[in-house]
Amino acid sequence: MSKAAVVPKERGGREAILSAAIAVLDSCGPDRFTARAVAARAGVSATAIYRHFTDLQALYDAVLADGRRRFAGYLADGADLPDALDRLHAAGDGYLRFAIEHPVMYHALFLGPARMPGGRDGGYPILRERVADCQSIGALPGDDPDMIALTLWSSVHGLTALHLSGHLGASDRGYLEQGRMLVRLVTRLRGETSTRRPS
After folding, report:
1. How far apart are alpha carbons 113 and 148 in whole angstroms?
2. pTM above 0.90, yes or no
């Protein structure tokens, strides 16, 4: 993006404060997410935050909402691929990359307390759509798409939790390779179940 295309954020404006809050979460984690830290990062007084957000929880919720939008963007990668199964694999790959590139945000969204209602928002509708597309061409069985999507989600989530906590003992590259293998293994097993069923 050229410099001319960059629109500076108004100092003390809502977007500037939100950007500062995202940076604080990324660098300090949820436990050190305070109004003072956000204000210092934004270069404003703590009271300036409350001109745009009712309280610190409202600001934190806005940070999580932004994280969910970014997470959904990762899962949407590969949307233009012609093959439904390739699109599903690309969504799984996006999940894995988000966890590596934004580990603190991933932890806040999926490994910490459920501070926001509706755990299936964000990227989940995209994953479910990818599953349904595979069902439509017979690549996955015609079961409840939510059951298959949740099986994939929980499988990759478990691997991710092990990796981010250090229990997996793998590098980021190793985690990516194992995650990609896991997504393909689950879809292959479900696909074989589909082909074994009588018509």
Report:
1. 25
2. no
